[in-house]
Structures are given as structure tokens and as C-alpha cells.
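From the shared-data thread, chain only:
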Amino acid sequence: QPTPPSSSAAARGSLEHSRYVLLKELFVLMTTAHHSVGGGTRELIAGPLPAALRRIVARPFTYGGSLFSCAATVLVDVAHSEPTSMSLLADAGIPSAFLKSVALGLPPSGDAIRCVPNLIAAICLSSAGLNCVKKSAAIVPYLARLGTPFYSRAMQAGETPMRIGQGMDELMRHVPALRTEGNSGLSLFLNHAAKFTSSAVQSCDTSAGATQEGSGTQDAAAVEKARLAIAYGASRLCGFGGASAEHQSVVVNTGGLVDLLALRHAPAMACVNAGGAGSSSNKSSISSATCLTAIVNALRSLGTRYASAVLRQLFEVVRTDSAKVMQISEALGQYWLEEEDHLRSANDTSNSTSPNDSRAQTRAELSAALSLLAVDTVILTGLTRGSGFSIGTWDTASVGQIGMTIACVERHARWHLARAFSGVRVGTANEEFDLAGAVVSVSAPIALVPVEDDIAVREAKVVSSLLGVGTDEQKLLLEDARKTKVPAPETHRVSIGGLVAALAKFVLTVEQLYVTLSKSMTSAVRRGRDSVASNIRALAETMGRLFALHFAAAQTLWDCRIRSCGNGQIVAAWEFLRGVCTSFRMTVLDEGRQTIEILVLDAFFRAGGGRLLETAFHPNSVITVASSPSSVSSVTSDGPGAEEMESSTFVEVLLKYYSRHDDAMSDAGATQEPRRDGREGVPSVEKLREMQTYWSRNNATTMTRRMENTVRIAAVYFLGSVCYLAKD
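Structure, as C-alpha cells:
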């Protein structure tokens, strides 16, 4: 692909700025006068104007896309105000010059490519013009080029895709002789767009500057922006551009639906490149969220006539992408994440011979596959919210299969995240469907920070009073107190990307799908639609079983500890159960309306969910924790208490004092009457060592206590809400 010119160069061409401005203003003046005065059209085109217009439309790259559009607008106005004057324009060679320019290619300007359908329709007002259009065969190459990177910037300008689609739809409706050519062009355009967005092309820039140092990152960013722009333009053109039955029939029956779904690779690749740190794309370019929304809306527009066909093809895509995720994961065995490698035992030889670079490549492939499946899930969620894709349009046999397929991958994702990290959180931006802009963070090890100054001063005075030291020693004790480190009052979090971010984002999209499906079931039941009763029951059974399987999967994590924080003392099962319990509650309970999805809950208990809940949450422990005021306060408190910080500071200051004074240390540890240890209230060195060990261990277990108590109290709240809402 040649390097596209800048927007200003494409609009202005190679003219000097003064000539361009003069011609632009003359076109504005002529159009205004023609619309205001009216009449005189034949006199206008009887002069030198046709020759000037022919010169402009025959040289679009010289005069630029803006003047090309102005000339086309004048020709359309002339054709509609005086249809008989088209013969004079034909004699001047304007239609043939225009069609030749369209066939060879136009500047990448939104103005230039937007005006083509309207002018072709105006040329077809006469039989001679129609024959000229058919002979030129310009429509197919014109549409096919729009799906290439060269026109990606032009296609995202304003409502360009929709106006082109609407113009082509109107052209084929009023000129039946061009329907075959127009349909072929639209199919080829969508096919070209799908191939580019789903390809692994590295760069669309073949200029000499592309080989310079540092151009790789810029090229990658340019390719990503081109993918998103092309996918966005194709979705808008084929989705909303032509809403007629014939247009939609072409999209569905000629393989266009497959190509339309293939556009999902663009936001999926953008999500992979963004990792977990959020998207940094330029505001002037198409974001992944905007592109994904356009794809969803394009599929929704087909729902009035072809909802079943769209869902059937989407379900096939979900099955294929899910199978690819599980196939890639087989090469990693039970250790998907790099942070899980420490769990291998000496006797575990699975993938032990795989080199690290091979496993890294496999993890990158798995991350890309998960991002694509997350986009599939978002599309399914978005379609379910539309009126044309209600649960009644779903195939009953596919409901259970698709639900369990997605849930299987989700369960694996939660399981591996729980073994490696604690407190995984996905922060999404304001835009819906913004996977690339989401920031994934995890809980970091408890950080030690200097103690608060007032506590340091107070404890230094206490130690000074106990030891009876002088002023100089008091200053040293105060310095030691201020250097004392205690656990930070707030839990630290770190952003993370790669496969971890892909797993977390996929889990988030599945949670949103569950909530959407649950609300759809509630709405269908409230309306009393008996025609969808079988689909509702099948979906409720599937969701109940999959949550039961989620709770059962926690049993394999009780002996696993998370090493990334809490000094390896956090039980992975608690982290796993916290996420599953939260998702289950969001799915089953609607706290705003105080309602419960009883069908899902009933299916869950019939699948053995009650027994699994009892096993997982240990009711006796739950009751003990929930009834203990101290445990509730420890959950609400994020950091160490004042008593912990004071005691830790007291111990550290005394130990540093003893380390500076060898005689005092030996006296404090001696069995005979010491010089300072005999002073009342001063602990011995052995006692100080014991206290230091105690506080160190206490700091390490702080996060574990908070997590277990939080999960148990959440379980009590969850089960209590279920019992309260289900009592009627």
C-alpha cells in the first residue's frame, strides 16, 4: 500500500494555497447564486464552465478532494434542476472523465469519496449516462478500495461511511441495472476490510523512512489505527448505510456476515497491544470501544430480518475461539501464568523441558486468543440487550452449549488468577466495551513505611524515660524511632498486563454477560411470554449448573498459597470464592428492585450448589467471624492499628539502642544484676526479640485475615439476602 498523504494534502491537492482558496470561494459563490436566483442552468453550462469542471474531475489528485467534491456537487445540482442538460455535460466528456477518475482511484479525502454515489445516480438520469456507467465498471473498484489502509483516515471523517452506504443503497434501488455491480462491490469491500483487520500485517508504510531506527513502534501504532478505522468504517457502511431488505440480504447471503464478524479482530488486537495499562490512542483516531460499538450496532441492524442467522454465526465463532483458547493452553499444562511456575513440584515434569522463550510465546498467543474471545462475549452481551436478539430468538440446543463453553474458559481463568494473585481488579473507562482502555491491577505485598512522626516522638520519650539517658542519647533515640518502618495504612496496588490482564478482562466480560442474561430472563418472565419459556428454562439450568461447577472448583485450591503478597500465607481458595460469590450475587440478585432470579437459584441448588456452599464457606467459621465485633472492625480497617505501630516502634528503638551500646546489650542479656536492665519496665533483649518476631509475623498475616474475614462476611450477607428474598 502506498503511503496516504495528510488530510490537508488530500483535500487541497498539489495546488498553491492561494489558487485553492480562490477556486473554493468561487464554487461557494456559484452554488449560493444558483440556489438563490434559480434558473439559467442551461445558460450556465453553455459557457466555459463544463470544460473547467471536466478538468477538475479528471485530475482529482491535482485539484484535491475538496474541489473534486465541489465540482461533483455542482454537477448534481445541474442534473436535478435541468435533467435535459446532461446531454451537454456528456458532450463535454464530464461523465467519462469522472468515471475514469473513480475507477483509477480518488484522493483519500472524505469529501471526495462521499460524493461518488450521488453523482453516479445523477449521470444515470439519462440512458446514455447509464450506458457510460455500465461500460466504465467503476463501482466495484471504487468500493473495493475503501476497505484498504489508504482510505482508512478518509473513512472515519464524520458520517462518511453511512453516507456512502445510503447513497449506494439508493442508487441500486433507483437504478436496478446497477444492482449486481453494486452488490459485488459491497461484498468485495467488506471482504477486503475483513482480511486486513484479521491479518497479522506489520506495517502499511512502504516508504523509505519506515526502515529508520525507532520506526517500528510508530508503524505498529499506525497499523493498529488503520485496523480500527477500517473496521469502524466497514461496520458503519454495511450496517447502517443500507437498511433495506436487499442490502441486508447481500450481507447475509454472500458471506458478508462472516466478514462482518471478522472485523472483531481489530478491537481484539488493540486490547492485546494495550495490555492492562489502558489505551493511549490519539483522541482524533477511532478507539477500540467506538469500533466495537459500531460492530455491535451493525449486527443489531440485521436483527429485524436475520437475527437467527446472526446468532448462529456468532455462536459458531464463540465455539471456535473457545476451542482455540483451550488448545493453546494445553501447551502450558496447569501453569498458564509465569507466577504459577513455583507451584511445580520436583516430580512434576509437565512441560518441564519447554524452553522459557517457547512458553513466553505460547502465553502471548493465549493472551491474543483470550482477547478475541472477550470481544466475542462483549458482542453477545451487546446483541442480547437489543430488541431483535431476545432470548426467544436463541436456539434452545445452543443455549446450554454456548453457556457451558464460555463458563469453562471463565472457570479456568479464575482458577489460574486465584493461584497467582490477590485482589485482581479491572478498572474500566467511561466508554462501554472499552477493553483496551481498561486498567488491570493486583494487590501488592504490604509495604513498610516510616511511622507517623507523633508516634515516633511519643515512643522515643517513653524509651528515654525508661533508660534514663541524656540529651544526646535522646536525640539518637528519636532518630531511631523516626526510621522505624510499619505496614502502610493502605493496601498498595500495581498495574499488570500480558496474559494476566487478558484473563481478568475476559472474566469481566463474562460477568457482564451473566448479568445481562439474568435481566433478560426476568423481563421475559414478567411479560409472561410463553413462547420463550423453554429457552428461559434451558438458560436458567445452564447458569445454575455452571455456578455449581465454579464453587466445586474451589476445592482444589485450599492447599495453595498466593506468593505475590501476604508472604505466601493467603489461601488461593478464598480469592477464587470471593470472585465467584460476587459474580453469582450480581447474577441472581437485583438489589435495586429487590428481586431474585428464582429459576437460576433453583437450578443452582438442584445441581448441588447448596452442598458446595456449605463445604466451601464452613458455616461455623462464618458465624464465628460474622458475630465477632473485632473481626468486623479488622475488615473495615485498611491499615495497622495505633497499638501495633506503637509497640513495633518501641521494640525497634530499644533494640537499636542496645546495638549501639555493647555493654548495655550484654548487661540486658546477663543473668546477673545489670546496670540498666534492673530498671523497672525495661524488657530484656530476649523479650524484645520475641516481640519483634511477633510483630513481623503479625504484619505478614494482616492481609490474610482481612481477606478471609471479608469473604466470610460477604458470604453471610449473600446467603442472608437470598433467604430474605426467597422467603415468599
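The longest helix spans residues 685-726.
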